[in-house]
Design a protein that fits this description.
Blueprint (H helix, E strand, L loop, with lengths): L4 H16 L8 H17 L3 E5 L7 E6 L7 E6 L15 E3 L2 E3 L3 H19 L8 E6 L10 H13 L3 E4 L7 E6 L1 E10 L3 E2 L10 H13 L8 E9 L5 E2 L2 E10 L2 H16 L7 E10 L6 H17 L5 E5 L5 H6 L4 E3 L5 E2 L7 E3 L3 H13 L2
Parallel strand pairs: 3-6, 3-7, 7-16, 8-15
Antiparallel strand pairs: 1-2, 2-6, 4-5, 5-18, 9-13, 9-14, 10-12, 11-13, 17-18
Helix pairs in contact: 1-3, 1-9, 3-9, 7-9
The structure holds zinc ion.
The site of zinc ion has 5 residues, from α3.
Length: about 375
């Protein structure tokens, strides 16, 4: 059998342009809610059932459902938010040039919304396919669910628990799918010292900036290719050039493969925070955010082997499993114990930059690949 994905891609290319035109920075609830309304209206016209999940601070979440069946649903997932403030893309927010559409979130992750809906339409029209399908759209993936909080994370986990498999629509690659992701932890160190005149009082002061310098060297030295990485940034300290600085702060971005590794990293940074090299300084360690890793599971690798079975049937190349150092909401569906493969969306370029684009010629082949894979579930 063969479904006409090319014709459907034409419809969804237009939809995608409309969706990209709405700028949706994670913290701008009004803009995200506007996008939710736009997708909800389009989806209802095309026969999807919709469920809007309101949030107070975060943009609303949206669930689209389609199809019937006695078996567990196939779940798709994507996020609505983007990283640049409104206005960053100029007046012509979504720009079409042949197959390419440029604009905020073109491939990260709006392209994944389009392919997911295409697959759901095709599956619902396939005789004998005995599973419903659903698409969960989250609103603050780019800031690790900071605004939707525990309720947001639980919505992802509880929705995933109903499903047999999850395809996450982050931007795709031509030769791989992501089956594991590092966890990310955001820390801040606040160092307090003793201010003094840089001339007459120099030896009476305790420099918070000097202490930060020692700590930064110690913390970054913990990084290893096999273990965690520690990136110190956003260093700010001192109030004038001729005073010994009494305050300094900096952030640390920690990435690790397992929860255990992140726990160990937190403990190691804690020891460095406690140990003052400049007498008279003290340090506070603050945990700002923490997104668990997407740990590789047998179920996820098995799902990838089904993708490869479908790829072979369609004459597409083989896809390798890939470990990404960036986080995504796929960590929560993996935590829920459901086989998950990430980066299932169409191809694109320059994500998180004002040159971001999506290649709409990849909508049909991507949708067809994951449609065929779903038939094997
Ligand atoms: Zn993304």
């Amino acid at each position: 059998m063969s479904y006409d994905f090319k014709a459907l891609a034409g419809v969804y290319k237009e939809f995608l342009r409309d969706v990209i035109a709405i700028e949706t920075p994670s913290e701008n609830k009004a803009q995200i809610d506007k996008l939710v309304t736009c997708i909800k209206d389009f989806a209802e016209k095309r026969g999807f059932e919709t469920e809007r999940i309101p949030f107070e601070k975060a943009g609303d979440y949206l669930i689209l459902r389609r199809g019937k069946g006695s078996k567990k649903p196939v779940m798709f997932m994507a996020h609505l938010d983007t990283v640049h403030p409104v206005g960053s893309f100029g007046e012509n927010t979504a720009r079409v040039d042949g197959d390419i559409i440029y604009g905020p979130g073109a491939s990260d992750c709006k392209g994944g919304i389009a392919t997911s809906m295409m697959i759901m339409e095709a599956l619902s029209e396939t005789a004998g396919f005995d599973r419903p399908t659903l698409l969960l759209l989250t609103s603050d993936e780019e800031i690790s669910c900071r605004l939707s909080g525990e309720r947001g994370k639980n919505t992802i986990i509880e929705t995933a628990k109903t499903a047999c498999a999850v395809f996450n629509g982050e931007p795709g690659w031509s030769d791989r799918f992501v089956t594991a992701r590092k966890g990310v932890m955001g820390l801040k160190l606040k160092i307090h010292g003793v201010a003094a005149h840089a001339g007459n009082g120099y030896f009476n002061g305790a420099s918070a900036v000097r202490e930060a310098a020692y700590k930064i060297i110690d913390i970054e030295s913990l990084s290893s290719k096999e273990g965690c990485t520690f990136n110190c940034s956003l260093l700010r300290g001192g109030t004038s050039g001729n005073s010994v600085p009494d305050y300094c702060e900096f952030s640390v971005d920690v990435r690790g493969l397992t929860l255990k590794a992140l726990d160990g990293a937190f403990e190691a940074v804690g020891k460095i925070a406690e140990n003052a090299r400049v007498t008279g300084t003290t340090c506070e360690l603050c945990l700002l955010s923490r997104r668990p890793p997407m740990e590789e599971t047998a179920g996820s690798l098995d799902l990838l082997s089904k993708i490869n079975e479908a790829a072979e049937k369609l004459g597409q190349n083989e896809y390798a499993p890939y470990l990404s150092a960036g986080g995504s909401d796929a960590c929560y569906t993996t935590m829920a114990g459901v086989p998950t493969v990430c980066c299932c969306g169409p191809f694109g370029s320059y994500q998180h930059s004002v040159r971001e684009s999506v290649d709409t010629s990849s909508l049909a082949p991507r949708a067809e690949l994951l449609f065929e894979t779903s038939l094997l579930l």
